[in-house]
Design a protein that fits this description.
CATH superfamily of the largest domain in chain B: Winged helix-like DNA-binding domain superfamily/Winged helix DNA-binding domain
Number of strands of chain A: 10
Structural class of chain A: alpha+beta
Number of domains of chain B: 2
Shape of chain B: globular
Largest sheet of chain A: 8 strands, antiparallel, barrel
CATH class of the largest domain in chain B: Mainly Alpha
Oligomer: heterodimer
Number of helices of chain B: 8
Order of helices and strands of chain A: HHHHHHHHHEHEEEEEEEEE
Distance between the termini of chain A: 83 Å
């Protein structure tokens, strides 16, 4: 009755131009979606831009911090500042030392400095007289008396200069042994002081260079102390020689003894502090290595991947779970980490894979035979209203073509792979125990689809369908959240090995425009190297 | 307005490819979003309506392809009697609604292939490429679709005569 072409024609003629009005809400939905798409497009650029600005800022800040830490003594202005600050503390010692010398040198007064010495001895006396039992008062008074002592020193220096000038004027005037020794001594001390200055500067620079960039207060004070001590020695070499003198000469004088003890105590303290600072700085070196502002992490990441299905009947879920198994993928990536105190911010590029292992046992469509046909005859009866409602019985024959399909058993075993380039943004917290570092972090990541190689069994066609990226079956952008725990061990000054175990889960379905929701979750372990920049 | 002018004809195409009206609306919505997003890429080589039609058909096919649920759906009972014709006409005067019901009662694979071949006029080779299936599969799907539709028309006729 119906030829194949007839059926096609009937449907083509009738349905070719079939029209029907969609619901009114549809246009509103289209408008809404178009607006959302526009916003998302803009926000995507904004997010990428913000990430770039963020990374650039971190780089700039970390590079600048590095420069600041590396060049404190190279910068002359900074050096002057440090010297100016440290002078306060050094000059307190100086004033004390000067007092000893003036006190001690009372017995062997030189005619040149008599006036000045009288004044200094007066100040010494006032110092001693004013010395109260309380240390605070003592410190206060010493600081107050410092100005007068400094003035006296100035006067002594001026007098010395005058004397030298007079001597130069006299030219050939014979010098006494004492004067010679004095001038030689002063020259020597000057030379020594300059040598010490240079040596101490070098030492301070070496300390500064060898130490890692210092951030914490303790380490800063430690390095400051080292610098301070070096600068003290550089600024006040005379005090050392004078104190040494007092050690030899002042053994009979109680007052000077006390002073010597005091100054020795000071020296010992500073010596102790300088000697005790060496191991401290070593300790700092060990822990400071973790405190680099900017780090880069290279790693490989075995990832155990499983999926969750929804929007399907339980039978379908069971069928798929029975034929599609969980699988381990090997991923790799690099991340940049910026550390502020104990907190970290991380981002990077990771190549991640999701998918499953298929083990389908199915019937494959072998061949189709469309040559078969038969004549289908039906007995048809109907009432003829025009002829007194008589029943008419006729035969209706139809020539029917039959298509026979042949199926064959087939098996499929392959791994479905969906590859992404993932950009995570994570924040974390880390803490150090000597060379060990422990941490926790978490955040979100945006993954961009890069490759699809998937085979799925189609129950209708009884065939395996090969799906690629072109099929547009999988979403191009995936969002996930992740949390992880990390441990790292410092193996070098700038290098540490780390292991990080984490959990990640997709926030949206991998499928595009589908009522079926398919999400993946991952348990992964990153193993790699972390290098400080 | 573009939407007002073409919405009804495009919705007709969607209804042919989709089983349910809600699904057809989803497809039409997706298709119009694509149309408005990529309207700049339209080159005036062919007719504008043809371009729209191609987008709608491709969207419907993608919807079908991506819907895994359908891949694992049990075969629909092709002799489902829930869509019996109501019009009292002979077989040559079947209404559009009746024909549409018959097409919609086909399973996804049959319906797609029949629509593409019989109504849109694509060849088996083109259909194979569009649906990622072999030419033979396309032929067998079409053949079975025709048999089913033929039976449905006969059923319709029988029912009409009996009534």
């Amino acid at each position: 009755m119906f030829e194949n072409n007839n059926i096609d024609d009937i449907f083509k003629k009738r349905l070719g131009n079939f029209q029907e009005e969609p619901s009114e809400e549809l246009w509103l939905n289209v408008e809404k979606k178009l607006w959302l798409k526009k916003v998302l497009r803009i926000s995507r650029y904004f997010i990428i831009g913000a990430c770039l600005v963020f990374v650039a800022t971190l780089t700039y800040v970390s590079v600048n911090n590095k420069k600041d830490h590396n060049t404190p003594l190279n910068n002359s202005k900074q050096e002057e500042k440090i010297i100016a600050q440290n002078n306060k503390s050094t000059e307190v010692i100086k004033s004390e030392n000067t007092n000893h010398t003036t006190a001690l040198s009372d017995s062997k007064s030189t005619p040149i400095n008599d006036a000045a010495k009288k004044e200094t001895s007066q100040t010494t006396v006032t110092n001693k007289a004013k010395t109260s039992p309380s240390d605070t008062d003592n410190q206060f008074k010493t600081k107050v008396d410092y100005s007068s002592v400094a003035k006296n020193n100035k006067k002594v220096k001026e007098n010395k200069k005058l004397q030298v000038a007079e001597n130069l004027k006299k030219n050939n005037a014979p010098k006494t042994n004492r004067e010679e020794s004095q001038t030689q001594g002063s020259e020597k001390t000057k030379e020594n002081s300059s040598d010490i200055k240079i040596n101490d500067k070098e030492f301070a620079q070496r300390v500064e260079k060898e130490n890692l960039p210092v951030k914490t207060e303790t380490s800063q004070t430690a390095s400051n102390n080292v610098q301070e001590q070096a600068l003290k020695n550089a600024a006040n070499p005379q005090s050392q020689t004078e104190v040494a003198k007092t050690k030899v000469e002042g053994s009979n004088k109680d007052l000077s003894k006390n002073e010597i003890n005091k100054s020795d105590g000071n020296k010992n303290e500073t010596a102790k502090s300088s000697t005790s600072k060496a191991p401290v700085s070593n300790k700092i070196n060990q822990t400071e290595a973790f405190k680099s502002a900017y780090e880069i992490l290279f790693y490989i990441m075995p990832s155990y991947t499983s999926k969750t299905l929804s929007g399907l009947s339980q039978d379908e879920i069971n069928f798929r779970n029975a034929n599609e198994k969980k699988h381990i993928f090997l991923n790799y990536g690099l991340e940049f980490r910026y550390r502020i105190s104990n907190f970290t911010i991380e981002t990077g590029l990771i190549q991640t894979q999701s998918g499953e292992k298929n083990n389908y046992d199915y019937k494959r469509l072998g061949s189709v035979d469309t040559t078969g046909s038969h004549n289908d005859i039906h007995l048809v009866s109907y009432i003829d209203p025009q002829n007194s409602n008589n029943t008419i019985v006729t035969f209706d024959s139809t020539w029917i073509k039959v298509a026979d399909s042949t199926f064959a058993n087939a098996k499929l075993s392959n791994v479905n792979v969906i590859k992404y380039i993932e950009i995570p943004v994570k924040i974390g917290y880390v803490f150090n125990v000597n060379r060990h570092q422990f941490g926790i972090n978490g955040g979100v990541s945006c993954a961009l689809l890069s490759q699809v190689s998937v085979s799925l069994y189609d129950n209708e066609t009884k065939e395996i369908r090969q799906i690629t990226k072109k099929d547009n079956m999988y979403k191009k952008t995936m969002w996930s959240y992740n949390v992880s725990l990390s441990y790292s061990y410092l193996i070098g000054r700038k290098t540490s090995v780390f292991i990080q175990s984490g959990f990640k889960k997709n926030l949206n379905s991998v499928l595009n425009n589908s009522s079926t929701k398919q999400t993946y979750q991952f348990i992964d372990t990153k193993v790699g190297i972390m290098v400080k920049l | 307005m573009l939407y007002k002018k073409y919405a009804s004809s495009m919705f007709g195409i969607c209804l042919r490819y989709c089983k349910k009206r809600a699904e057809a609306e989803d497809v039409l919505q997706e298709a119009f979003i694509k149309i408005f997003s990529s309207i700049g890429s339209y080159r005036s080589d062919g007719s504008f309506e043809g371009w729209l039609k191609r987008i709608v058909v491709n969207t419907a096919l993608n919807y079908y392809k991506s819907n895994l649920k359908r891949c694992f759906d049990e075969s629909i009972d092709e002799m489902n009697d829930s869509h019996m014709p109501t019009a009292q006409v002979n077989e040559t005067d079947l209404s559009m609604q009746d024909l549409m019901r018959m097409i919609n009662s086909l399973s996804d694979g049959y319906r797609m292939v029949f629509n593409l071949y019989a109504i849109e006029g694509y060849s088996h080779k083109e259909i194979g490429e569009m649906l990622n299936i072999s030419e033979n599969t396309s032929k067998s799907q079409l053949s079975r679709a025709r048999v089913i539709l033929q039976n449905k028309i006969l059923e319709f006729r029988k029912m009409f005569i009996n009534n």
